[in-house]
DNA sequence: AAGATTAGTGATTCATCAATCAGTCAACCT
DNA sequence: AGGTTGACTGATTGATGAATCACTAATCTT
């Protein structure tokens, strides 16, 4: 029983990982469930045992990607010194961008998808990240915490684009 | 003859305008050429008299959208006082975001499309905008012109997301 | 070992779409 | 009037993709 649950959970996370890759590489709408299945080494119909629709799979993939960022930022916030806080957050995000580029690319795609459920997931992710950063900046006594939070997020978004388009000069200072 | 050219040019720009709307609303890959045709009030096959492929139409739409921004910024740069320069550029971009949201949404989509021709169009647009802003900041004697340019672009990108997701709080200071 | 539950797939369905083709219709020329 | 050109469309094609169905194989239970 627990063995089955484990195997099943592995299959599910295999599918999610495959979906993140394929969606990021090909574009969510152009990507096919057959491509995801091939990457996950299962048959195409089997995806629908775990996700009722392609969109449900996208939603789960987005949740994974937001959890990645939020967990990483939480660790920084809990341990960083006030002086190092912003630098450490930036470093943490750069680390994510290096290691999980596909998750970020998927989020970038989802920013322009108008389905309510997708939008809600994106709003929730941004809201939580912003809240965490803002609270941490305030707790660290950073002046103009609101503006600094906005600029931190803004920098991150430009960083995404710089990475997606392979234009490092966009981040030059 | 010139009458025909005019009619033909109108048709072409009708198609481009329709494509910007439909692609922005529905997503480029999900949008169909039939939807674009309906919006432009022509038949679906007629699109292919003007654009050899759907992708060629996207490329032209992207060029239009970049030209919009570049022309607008150029006017600001040519006329604004050094003290007002950044403020005026921000205002100009907000104006574009209000009036031509769909063009911006289309650019956001194109940021994650991996086709070479699309990427090249996006790189060219970003490069030109960055160059113009950087040169103007330098000419205005703004210190740390490189960093200020980066932050200006970053703010703009967050502004896009804030508008796309209907999250004004992302831009709060 | 037999029965029952779970893991997994092949084949199919029905819908959809970019692109092509073959043709109509109207305007203009002479 | 008749012929030529350019604007424009209906019908079609060939491919593709999400989702369903009807199965088989494997594992677990007792």
TrEMBL record, chains A, B:
Keywords: DNA-binding, Transcription, Transcription regulation
InterPro entries: DNA-bd_HTH_TetR-type_CS, Homeodomain-like_sf, HTH-type_TetR-like_transc_reg, HTH_TetR
DNA-binding region(s) in UniProt: 32-51
Domain of life: Bacteria
Residue intervals of the HTH tetR-type domain: 9-69
Protein name, UniProt field: AcrR family transcriptional regulator
The species this protein was found in: Paenibacillus forsythiae
